[in-house]
Amino acid sequence: MTDVLIGLGSNVGDRLTHLQNAVAGLRTVLRHVQVSHVYETSPVGVLTQPPFLNAAVRGETTEGPQRLFFWAKSLELAAGRRPGPRLGPRQLDLDIIAFGDLVVGTPRLHIPHAAFAERGFVLAPLADLAPDLVLPGADATLSTLAARVGRAGIERAYPPESLSAPR
Q1: What is the domain range of residue 118?
Q2: 90 given a catalytic annotation
Q3: Residue 58 catalytic?
Q4: Is 120 helix (H, G, I), strand (E, B) or coil?
Q5: This model's pTM is above 0.85
Q6: E strand spans, the chain
């Protein structure tokens, strides 16, 4: 079993339901699932779009990183996501942030996720789940990285229970 961290985001449609359904879908390939708080965050990049809900999931899997990646992409597709502008609006965005100590760099998959250490909307939920974890290539724990980046643009939080079941 490999310990994984997955970031979740949604800013189109019923954002909370998209995240709830994603967590339910991830439970089919992950064991011992833990869910972070849900954070409402300002968009990054394309600023003329609705705010996001962001969260993270931690679990263990026997699947490989490519299979988990394709599973995540199938959940995005099921939520209605279609190709669009980079950093643009989306029903669901799932990113594999960490896959054990593995480092992967392919055209479609980067583990650890390339920009995780620069984004408060990613670090806040990760720090909920694994505050003392140092990801490959990072110079500090997730909680230290989150403190460095700060909470600018993180407008409010909902408890992990809000993602416990799809509505």
Answers
A1: 2-163
A2: yes
A3: no
A4: helix
A5: yes
A6: 2-10, 31-35, 38-41, 52-61, 93-99, 104-105, 110-111, 154-158
Q: Calculate the average pLDDT of the chain.
A: 91
Whose tokens are 């994984």? That residue is 4
- Residue indicated by tokens 């980046």: 149
Q: Considering 15, 58, 95, 119, which one is annotated as catalytic?
A: 95
| Residue 65 pLDDT | 96
Q: What is the number of domains present in the chain? A: 1
Query: If DSSP codes are grouped into helix, strand and coil, which group holds residue 94?
Result: strand
Active-site choice (90, 101, 108, 128): 90
CA dist 159 and 157 (Å) reads 7
Measured CA distances, 43 to 38, 54, 127, 136 (Å) = 15, 11, 20, 26
Which of 52-66, 83-97, 127-141 shows the lowest per-residue confidence on average (mean pLDDT)?
83-97
- Measured CA angle at 95 (ends 70, 6), to 5 deg: 100
Burial class (CB in 10 A: 0-12, 13-18, 19+), 111: buried
What is the C-alpha separation between 99 and 103, in angstroms, rounded? 8
Has 93 been annotated as catalytic? yes
Cis peptide preceding 112, ω within 30 of 0: yes
